[in-house]
Amino acid sequence: MLGTIRAFWHDQRGIAMILVAIMLPVIIGFALLAIDMSRANGLHNDLQKGADALALAVAAELDGRSDSITRANLAATTLLSNTTKFSTSGDHTLALSDVTIKYLTGIPASDSIALGADGVDANGVNWASTDPKAVSFAEITVNPSGDGDGAGSFATIFPASFIGSNNTFDIRPQAVAGFVQSICETVPIFMCNPFETTDPLTSKTIQQAFASGDTYSREFRILKVDNNPGPGNFGLIDNNLSSLRDAIAMGTSGTCYDRSALTTKTGVTLGQVNAGLNTRFDLYSGSLNKNNKDWAYRPASNIRKGQKTGCSKYDPVTDNSALPLPPGDSYGVPKAGMSLPIGSQGFWTNYWQINHGAAYPNVPSATNPTGTKTAPASRYDVYKYEIANGRVADKSLAPTKETGTPSCYKGDNPTSDPDRRLLNMAIVNCIANQAKINGHVQLRPEGYASVFVNTPVQKQDNTKDDEDASAAEKPISLEIVDVDGGFANNTLVDKAFRNEAQLYR
Predict the structure, then answer these.
(1) Rounded to whole angstroms, how far apart are CA atoms 350 and 432?
(2) DSSP string of 469-495?
(3) Are strands 220-224 and 233-237 parallel, antiparallel or unpaired?
């Protein structure tokens, strides 16, 4: 009997079955955990991709305009289509109810500082804002499901409840994207918004004024002042070129400007501004005469300006034998810095008869942003009509017999496209930013405009050279042809703007 018991004790046959029976739940448990981790990782990737895409789409609308948040919310509503797998709700399409969207004015400098779904970081700084002009970042956070039924809710195969845990848990990816807009083809000049007032009820953005037709065919005259600039004034912006004159002559600042961070410039002789602008009219003053073969300093293809002979400064005729594009009526009434719109086709009678020797052909108002073609043509419309219809070479009355064809420039023939008399220029609310205008500080422009230079800039004392600082300058005469934004005529140079939304977290 004892021998039988001893033999049974030492008999190892079937022990593997016992070990397998003991280890099988553990093996199955690890297998289930591996499957769960793979499924959870797949769900997390789906949710993160959806959050990333949504953050980018929303941030792309945060351009600092008054309707930026409205457009961002619309983008979120219409662009949510990412489908997730392995959530408790099945193959779930990410919806607005699954995420929290917060708009931020900034983000912590270090990624190590956590940012909550409410826009408050780990240091207690609240970055969230509802001001559409102040926000430039969008934070997308997948919501906790609460009841375990949602896009971010994950149900485990592993029976975690056996060990006192839950069979579901939440996955909460987060994405933060920001909007960056820059402009690379622009002169280092800003113009004060002529439609800004101290009363928010009457003040207009340049985009609102353009869309309603308030800018069309008005003459805008802008003059540099050093103190308290406002509507009718302009200022200077830092640029990456050693010469402000050359930057304006070439039409590029030599750098790209961040839309939200223009740095103002002071202490520049304005003769440099005038000399640079006047190259577009075939005028090369002072040391610029050495550039009259350089393509970067070429004039426009139509330079008619009512000029006597000469290549160095603007010297308009006084006998009406040639005329520049005419100035506006009632300048400064009812608003500073601008004239009334052109009121009738008769506005152009003398200009056309003297310069072209014929009756005015009622040029259509091709660039009117309201779409009306029956309004009197703007200066830019007439200028473009002359080019398109072969009237640039027409001679004005004797004795001047001026044409619009350049003669002082000795390089390759200038082309009509791109148009050298169009400039991209920042528009700034100078009343609101009065404290930032003077001095090297950063400010956010209201927008950008494509402006047409009507005439060369003249000295008050015309015996002085354009670069001579001892004589005051007359204002720069402009028309606003286009603006950036949704109401544009799309004549701003396509390559000028770079609108980018990028992920930061």
Answers:
(1) 41
(2) TTSPBPPEEEEEEEESSTT--S-S-GG
(3) parallel
DSSP annotation of 38: H
CA distance 240 to 243: 9
Residue 279 to residue 467: CA distance in whole angstroms? 13
Residues 297/250, Cβ–Cβ less than 8 Å: yes
Cβ neighbors of 89 (< 8 A, separation 6 or more) are 149, 150, 151, 153
Q: State residue 264's pLDDT score.
A: 75
Q: Using CA atoms, how far apart are residues 404 and 395, in angstroms rounded to an integer?
A: 8
Q: Which of 270, 219, 271, 279 is nearest to 251 (CA)?
A: 279
Cβ neighbour number for residue 353 with a 10 Å cutoff: 15
For 59, the enclosing helix (H) or strand (E) is helix 15-59
Structure-block tokens of residue 145: 């499901």
Task: State the alpha helices, DSSP H only, in 150-284.
Answer: 206-211, 244-250, 271-278
* 3-state percent helix, strand, coil for the chain, nearest multiple of 5: 25, 20, 55
Residue 17: exposed, middle, or buried by beta-carbon count in 10 A (0-12, 13-18, 19+)? Answer: exposed
| pLDDT by residue, tens only, the chain of 505 residues | 666 766 666 666 667 777 777 777 777 767 766 776 776 676 777 777 778 888 888 888 887 777 888 888 888 777 666 665 555 555 566 667 777 888 888 877 777 788 887 888 888 888 888 888 778 888 888 776 544 445 556 566 666 555 545 656 667 778 888 887 777 777 778 888 888 888 878 888 888 899 889 999 999 888 765 555 566 667 777 766 567 778 888 877 666 777 667 777 765 556 677 888 899 999 998 888 888 898 889 999 999 999 878 888 888 999 999 999 999 888 777 777 788 999 999 999 999 999 999 999 999 998 998 888 789 999 999 999 999 999 999 999 999 999 999 999 998 888 888 889 988 888 888 888 877 776 667 777 888 888 999 999 886 655 555 555 555 667 889 999 988 766 566 666 455 666 777 788 7
In a 3-state reduction of DSSP, which class is residue 410? coil
Q: Kindly give, in sequence order, each residue whose CB lies less than 8 Å from that of residue 55, ignoring residues fewer than 6 positions away.
A: 138, 139, 140, 175, 176, 177, 503
Q: Which residues contact 473 (CB under 8 A, 6 or more apart)?
A: 223, 224, 270, 271, 273, 274, 457, 458, 459, 460
Decide the pairing of beta strands 476-483 and 447-453.
antiparallel
Going by the DSSP 8-state scheme, the letter that residue 384 receives in this structure is H
Listed by start position, the domains of the chain span 18-181, 184-497
Q: Which residues pair with 378 in a beta bridge?
A: none
For the chain, the straight-line distance linking the first and the last C-alpha, in angstroms and rounded, comes to: 76
Helix, strand, or coil here: 92? strand
